[in-house]
Amino acid sequence: METTVLILLPIAGAVALWFAPWLTPRAAGGFALLVALAELAFWIGTALNFDFGAAEPQAGADRVWFADLDVAYRVGLHDYTLWLVGLTAVGTAAAVGYGFWVGRERAGVYLSLLLFLEGATVGVFAAQDLVLFYVFWEAMLIPLYVLIGVWGGPGRLGATVKFVVYTMAGSLLMLVAIIAAGLQAGTFDMTSAAGRGSSTWIFLGFAAAFAVKAPLFPFHGWLPDAYRESPPEVAAVLSGVISKTAAYGFLAIAIPFYPGPAEDWRVPALVLASIGLVYGSLLAFRAPDVRGVVAYSSLAQMNLILIGLFAANASGYTGALLQMVNHGLISAALFLLAGAIERRASTGQLVLLGGLARGRPVLATILITTGVIALAVPGSSAFAAEFLVLNGAFAVGWGWAVVGAIAIVLAAMYMLRLVSAVLHENVGSAVPAEALDLRPAEVGVIAPLVVVLLALSFWPAAITDRLSGALF
User: Fold this and answer.
1) Cα-Cα-Cα-Cα dihedral of 354, 358, 361, 363, to 10°?
2) Does residue 283 belong to any structural domain of this protein?
3) What is the pLDDT of residues 338-355, one digit of tens each?
4) Which terminus has fewer CB within 10 Å in the chain: N or C?
5) pLDDT digits (tens, 9 = 90+) for 55-85
6) Do 291 and 223 form a contact (C-beta atoms < 8 A)?
7) For residue 297, what are the domain limits?
8) Could you tell me which residues come within 8 angstroms of residue 247 by beta carbon, excluding any fewer than 6 positions away?
């Protein structure tokens, strides 16, 4: 029952925002933030009562829709999906809070779309039926189309078209794969169908759909424009949360449903992921703007996560899951910081920035802290996750671990370049002398993301030691 509440609470809040006669945009925004915080509080309550020793889904529900095809409303949470739902709740609360503070045009509709997106995303993580999984997967796309296409930047039309073309192609492949998988297994129940598939083509259909959504190399053509043209809080959710639904798809469907084809395609997948990891890191180092650095670093990190998943061992899976949470928080914080920088300088171009640390200690502290965690210094949660991923990759072949280690060095280079270009060097021509430090509302939105990262850095076992073994 708790899982159903986690799905329906933000959707109900979205419906209320659509139809209730709000007197002012601030009232609508306050209600949206209240709903997002209530979702987060309910998740905390669910986590406190969760049995981390159980391998079966918990807090779920099962209602048959079509008995002949064994299609049902089946939802529940595994220990690993619990953390991804928590990431969704934290990331969406930060995005709603930022959008509320900025004061988006038609705030009620805008924030309702973010809440609807949250409910659909939780549904993807919680679904235990393939048809239901697809319904929630498609439901995620609707608010994203509108949020980018209506509230995006000057190039939003082109960004939306690319996003639609790529995602629709992936969705059609997934639909075909789901129908074939269900008919082949005789059930759409994800628990019953796991490990029973042997079709390479169905596996590739799922893999292509997830690779597009992540995105992974070479399916990332929609990424630069979508991340640059989205409002900062939408880019934060898209990179920090939505991309994790694709990694979850590999983790919970593609690899465990089709272990034979996954093993056969392990080397090609690791080759593409290794290329994408280095390629994304190099593009991030050369990106001319703040959002470009964060966007391409996301491409690199998602490929690193894929290396952990296709290592197909306990260390790789555990590291990949921890890195999903780490990257979600880091990416969300960096995109919101990019939005704060753009509000002050009216640009994110690195050549026009510089010197923002002077007189702005809060901005400098939060950006440096996030950047240091992102470049995976020893003692950070990102270091713990990447160490586990490389350890898992080394068990498959030392070459994969070497590529990962090289990418860690490249990550340090592009993050240090970002921090230096924004905070240090000479004051850029686009930085007004009167530009303010982060306002209390901005700190209240971004700082909790960094605090969670710091907490995970002190105690990564909060996640890694609370996995029942259902993953591996």
Assistant:
1) -20
2) yes
3) 999 998 888 889 998 888
4) N
5) 788 877 777 777 667 777 889 898 899 999 9
6) no
7) 265-472
8) 210, 214, 302, 305, 306, 309, 320, 324
